[in-house]
Amino acid sequence: MAISVLIPTVLRKYTSGTDQVVAHGASVREVLQDLERQFTGFSQNLYEADGELKAFVNIYVNEEDIRFLQDLQTPVQPNDTVTILPAIAGG
Amino acid sequence: MSQSAKALLAGLRRQIQEISPEDVDKKIGTGVKIIDVREADEFKQGHLPEATFIPRGFLELRIEDAVPDREREVVLYCAGGSRSLFAAHNLQELGYQNVSSMAGGFQRWKEKGFDVVIPETLSESQRKRYLRHLIIPEFGEKGQLKLLKSKVLLIGAGGLGCPAAIYLAAAGVGTIGIVDADVVEESNLQRQILHNAAGTGRPKVDSAKDALLAQNPGINVITYKERITSANAEEILRDYDLVIDGTDNFPTRYLINDACVLLKKPNVYGSVFRFEGQVSLFVPGRGACYRCLYPAPTPSELAPSCQEAGVLGILPGVIGLLQATEAIKWIAGIGEPLIGRLVWYDALRCVTRTYKLRQNPHCSVCGEHPSINTLQDLEWACAV
User: Fold this and answer.
1) Residue A91 and residue B271: Cβ atoms within 8 Å?
2) pLDDT tens-digit series, residues B241-266
3) Is the per-residue pLDDT at B128 higher than 60?
4) What residue ranges define each of the domains in chain A, with the CATH number in brackets?
5) Residues 6 or more apart from B77 whose CB is under 8 A from it?
6) Fewer beta carbons under 10 A from the terminal one: N or C of chain B?
7) Which residues in chain B are contacts of A19 at CB distance < 8 A?
8) Partner residue facing A88 (CB), from B158, B303, B358
9) Do A91 and B349 touch (CB under 8 A)?
10) Model confidence at B120: pLDDT above 90
């Protein structure tokens, strides 16, 4: 299933500067795995040692935070948009 | 054929329903619209609770904004009960079907000992300065008085704090506090619009204060030339109604968040990175906080501050003004506050996206069983 993924500025170095890519998968975890296949190194900063997402990286399926859905198991469907949104601090 | 004013009034008394002060008192708070049709100097000396002031000379022009529904019950009053009869007649001609005039007017209302509200009013110079606010029906003098009485604390006089502060000052926020320990550097001037080339090397709080008072001499500006820490945060925040987080690093953002949760202060959050920005409003007890959004501090390799990362100068202008807008809405009590939503803005595509921001029941500071009960400074190496 083709899912649209919005790439945050800090991770665009892995996607040749592209801010929106297409990935395949039936869950958020599968989408992230596909992104790693397409863009080597993409997900190296996203996970804790135990495989959980780091607490400063938010992932949304459409407008919902996956922490309040099924985390990485959250299912995705065609036409869904996945947003990766790490914390930013600048002022 | 002409008739005397007396005869005209007698005729109106037969056509217009008159209502006693006792009955008006019972109707207050039940959805009836009470309109004071006297002149401004009379209204200023006292009026009925919940009365809307529309002098008789402007009644026909303003009534549709004040009472769009022509079937709504409207009670008019003046000083003695005569002008309100003429006014009621005019409203009937405009199609208002349920209009009455308070018998004996404000004079009898006072004699009967019912509640009188003495309005706080603006000075003549304030009236001129804030005229464009005053003529917005949803904002008006009421909104302006709220702004003038409000106290807003800006933490950081940088990219976000400068644009927010100048508009808050212009809008008439009565007291603006600014916390910043830094001095103005040349590299700040690309975005930090309160500072100027001649002020390089000056404390940012001094430079900011001069700019704000030059814009609006009628406000108070209080400066704190220090870093906000766990030791001073509560003392500084205590007197303010609302905090604007315009800092440039994670440890201070967590500290501000925790202080605002513990002191129950609304916290308008904004942050920027290169071409993108985020905004939200955290109100303790009403929705998520910063730790609900990002539970744990970020390692700096994924999120450097502006110093390391660069930022398009105009971007914090956009985000800082969204923060200031939320502050003004919150203080004036208008619109829908940005609680429970995170707005993300991408300058390059010129798009905004809104994400749901839910309160985390396990949040370490605002959750059901918080582990953070006192302020602590985060151990942190800011520089990469």
Assistant:
1) yes
2) 999 999 998 999 999 999 999 999 99
3) yes
4) 2-86 (3.10.20.30)
5) B24, B34, B35, B36, B37, B48, B51, B84, B101, B102, B105, B106, B109
6) N
7) 346, 348-349
8) B303
9) no
10) no
